[in-house]
Structures are given as C-alpha cells and as structure tokens.
Design brief:
Number of helices: 13
Structural class: alpha/beta
Strand order of the largest sheet: 3-2-4-1-5-6
Largest sheet: 6 strands, parallel
Strand content: 5-15%
Helix content: 40-55%
Low-confidence stretches: none
Mean pLDDT: 90
CATH topology of the largest domain: Rossmann fold
Order of helices and strands: EHEEHEHHHHHHEHHHHEH
Distance between the termini: 14 Å
Number of domains: 2
C-alpha cells in the first residue's frame, strides 16, 4: 500500500501549519479533510488557509462546491482519493490534514457508501429548513442517543446522515460507526493526532473566534446571504455561520454571537478528540505544547 500522512486533531490545534511544515520536509502536498473548507466563499469562518499561509505548498479539497450544493462523505471519499492518486503520480507524498474524522476514515478505510446510500437525506434537509436543526438533533436523541451524544447539534450534515441511515436501514448509526472501525485500510497511513492541554486549546479557540470577527466574518456572512445563501442550507448551519446569521438578523448581539461561537467551537473540539480516541485508537498522539510546527513535523516523520 502507498504511504500517506495524516495530521488530525481538534479545531485550532495548529494542524495546517504542521502539515505545511511536514510537506516542506518530505516533499508533500496537503489534502484538506475539513467538511466546511470544501465550500467556496466560506473562508474566514472555516479558518481556510490563505494563499500566503499555504507557503506555495499545493492544497487540495478546498473550494470544491458552492454553499448551496449538497456534499457528502461519499463524494469526499471519491474526490480525495483522486487527489491522493494525482499527488502520488507526481512523486509527492499526500498529507491528509483536518479535523473531520468521518471524512478521514472515509478515505483511509474500505467503506462502500453505495451500500448504505438512501433517498431520505433530502427529506431531513427539508425538515431542518422547516423546523430548525435543533429539532433534528432532538429527534436523533430519541432514535439514537449514542449518536446524538457524539454529534454536535450544529453538525447538520452528520445529524441528517444518522437519521437517514436509520430511516433506510432500521439500524442505529452508532452501531454502523462501530462496524466501520473494522473495515480494512486502503492506505498505509502515518496517522498522528495533535494534542495540547485543554485549557490552552480553549484559549486558542476563543482567540481565533475573536480574530475571525476582526478579520470580517460578519461581512463574509452578509455577502453570502446577499447571494441567496440562507440559513436553511446545511453549509450555513456550520459553527460560526449560523450564529452570525442570528446576529445579522438582529436576534442576538454581536457579543452574544462571539460568545456562542466560542462555546459551540469548544464543544466541537471536545467531540473531535473523543472521535479520534474512539475511532482511531492506534493513532499516534503528539503533545504539541511549546513545540514549533517544524519540531512537530519532524516528530511525525520519526513515526513513519
């Protein structure tokens, strides 16, 4: 099997800078594994690396679809694997980098999405538009409490996937996830999860959210809304966008929006780390406190 690297971890843990440093060391290219960075025009709220921040390292799976288009793990699997093949064909090493654990596993494991594809996703999308995403998450709590605990209420795509999977198969999505752990690997992956002391991570999250507003998040969301991208879209239910829409519509204050985004992001980060611990128990956990991206990259290389 061809070797690839995986740089995973919670939001705001510094994955991008580490992946770029690693790419420079090994002649690699970065393949984003972020379910929000696939959307064009959603840059600030997704912490999408700018062209300057990419430091001339090629990045893939960024700006793939417009915010009104449906996107899925199955489609990501197909496109990311094609990107991996392209990178390897040019003699470079793929570096899968991101915090969307389900996307990462979709690439690494022999998961056949065609077997559990179903026609009910659109039904739940419309339900979210009519009743709100909180309604969907409450429904999931009744049907599959374990999945509801693992999936953040704002992660609408995952909530819809869990509900539609149950609708089609009559089985619990939480049990499906256990099955996926046992699927064989497609690649020989050097899988590393970045870890830091929780209070430091939360401080970084809070600071990042503040910087997003300083850098114009509310203007970005206003532009998206002016193009017709509304709160009923799955993309616009992402953390940072949903709350900013509430602020722009006058339902909450700017300060409340910032505080809510910080809180929701902290909760999301906690769930991310739980996911990687449970779904990828063989991953190498790297403590990054006080280390530079280059130091971390070289530590990752030692595990190859």
């Amino acid at each position: 099997m061809q070797k690839i690297y995986v740089v995973a971890g919670a939001t705001a843990s510094g994955k991008t800078s580490v992946a770029i440093a690693l790419a420079k060391e090994i002649g690699g290219e970065v393949i984003s594994a972020d379910s929000m960075q696939v959307y064009t025009g959603m840059d600030i709220g997704t912490a999408k690396p700018s062209m300057d921040e990419r430091e001339n390292i090629p990045h893939h799976m960024i700006d793939v679809v417009t915010p009104d288009m449906t996107y899925s793990a199955a489609l990501y699997q197909q496109q990311a694997r094609a990107a991996i093949t392209d990178v390897q064909a040019r003699g470079h090493i793929p570096i899968l980098c991101g915090g969307t654990g389900f996307y990462i596993n979709a690439v690494l494991r022999d998961i056949d999405f065609a077997k559990d594809a179903n026609p009910h996703s659109e039904y739940y999308v419309q339900m979210a538009v009519s009743n709100g995403t909180g309604f969907l998450h409450d429904l999931l709590k009744k049907i599959d409490p374990a999945s509801a605990e693992a999936i953040h209420p704002n992660n609408t795509k995952r909530v819809i996937r869990a509900l539609s999977y149950n609708h089609e198969t009559g089985q619990l999505f939480s049990q499906y996830n256990e099955t996926q752990k046992k699927q064989p690997d497609v690649y020989s992956a050097v899988f590393c999860v970045l870890n830091m002391e929780r209070s430091q991570l939360y401080e970084r999250i809070n600071r990042r959210v503040g910087e997003m507003f300083e850098n114009g998040l509310e203007n970005e969301v206003a532009r998206l809304m002016a193009k017709g991208y509304h709160s009923g879209l799955v993309s616009m239910q992402g953390i940072g966008y949903k709350e900013t829409i509430e602020y722009l519509q006058g339902n909450i204050t700017r300060a409340q929006a910032i505080e809510t985004i910080q809180q929701n992001t902290r909760h999301y980060a906690k769930r991310q780390m739980t996911w990687f611990k449970n779904q990828n128990p063989d991953a190498v956990v790297i403590n990054i406190d006080g280390k530079s991206p280059v130091d971390i990259a070289r530590e990752i290389m030692r595990h190859a």
